[in-house]
């Protein structure tokens, strides 16, 4: 194994996975690795087939369900994304990424058409994001998304706390800094809002012009 040359590029990697599968078609992990390579080459239809082959060989391969969910999200099929991520957490108990993805997508399907349904989706999103954090206490994206969910529920203090957890884990996480700017603005803590807004901008985040404009009068 130690003398096996590493593939030099994506095409070589894909060719190697296909060659491995020609010798053993029942290896779910190899089908999954092939799918990852194909997605990197934007060969999405072939990647989708490889992921289904991976699941057929290894029904508990939670990562394959998550990637299928990612393909659905790319196609704006939010219900499909939810479905596959729900399969992922059934396939592997405590799979933090699946819980976080469900929480994220539930926030996207809130459309303002039915207040009761939207509230239920929001509560479910918060529930799943909390589970993601329980299973991975360093899951920075889950903390930031949870913060956004709290804001949507009107719980500004809780949202700020979640985003502070995110930047404590990863100080250069721009989304959390942007979210903190939003939260502190809501609290009237303008100096803190400006500080986090500027950090988000410095980190390359596309801060909304509306937020910048609201903070502009409070700059020294």
Describe the structure.
The radius of gyration is 21 Å and the shape is elongated. The protein is mainly α. It has helices spanning 10-23, 28-40, 44-57, 62-74, 78-91, 96-108, 115-135, 140-152, 156-169, 174-187, 190-202, 209-215. It is 74% helix and 0% strand. The protein contains 12 helices and no strands. It starts with 9 loop residues before the first helix and ends in a 5-residue tail after the last helix.
Summarize this structure briefly.
The protein is mainly α. It is 74% helix and 0% strand. It is built from twelve helices and no strands.
List the helices and strands and how they pair.
Elements: H1 10-23, H2 28-40, H3 44-57, H4 62-74, H5 78-91, H6 96-108, H7 115-135, H8 140-152, H9 156-169, H10 174-187, H11 190-202, H12 209-215
Helix pairs in contact: 1-2, 2-3, 3-4, 4-5, 5-6, 6-7, 6-8, 7-8, 8-9, 8-10, 9-10, 10-11
Low-pLDDT segments, ≥5 res? 1-7
Residue share in β-strands: under 5%
Number of DSSP strand runs: 0
**Alpha-beta classification:** mainly alpha
What pattern of helices and strands is seen along the backbone?
HHHHHHHHHHHH
Helical residues, percent:
over 70%
What form results from the Cα inertia axes?
A: elongated
Main beta sheet strand tally, sense and closure? none
Specify Rg, calculated over alpha carbons: 21 Å
Instruction: Provide mean pLDDT, rounded.
Output: 95
Count of DSSP H/I helices = 12
**Alpha carbon gap, first and last residue:** 62 Å
Key features?
220 residues, mainly alpha, single chain
């Amino acid at each position: 194994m130690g003398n096996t040359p590493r593939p030099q590029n994506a095409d070589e990697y894909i060719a190697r996975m296909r060659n491995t599968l020609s010798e053993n078609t029942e290896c779910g992990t190899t089908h999954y690795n092939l799918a990852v390579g194909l997605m990197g080459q934007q060969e999405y239809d072939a990647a989708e087939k490889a992921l289904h082959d991976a699941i057929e060989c290894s029904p508990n391969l939670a990562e394959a369900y998550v990637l299928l969910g990612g393909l659905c999200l790319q196609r704006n099929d939010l219900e499909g994304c939810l479905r596959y991520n729900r399969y992922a957490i059934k396939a592997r108990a405590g799979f933090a990424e699946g819980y976080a993805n469900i929480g994220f997508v539930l926030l996207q399907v809130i459309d303002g058409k039915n207040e009761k349904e939207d509230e239920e989706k929001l509560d479910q999103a918060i529930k799943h994001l909390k589970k993601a954090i329980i299973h991975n206490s360093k899951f920075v994206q889950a903390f930031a998304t949870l913060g956004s969910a709290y804001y949507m529920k009107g719980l500004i203090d809780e949202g700020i706390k979640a985003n502070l957890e995110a930047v404590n884990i990863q100080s250069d996480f721009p989304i959390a800094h942007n979210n903190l700017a939003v939260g502190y603005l809501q609290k009237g803590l303008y100096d803190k809002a400006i500080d986090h807004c500027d950090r988000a901008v410095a980190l390359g985040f596309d801060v909304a012009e509306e937020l910048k404009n609201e903070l502009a009068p409070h700059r020294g």
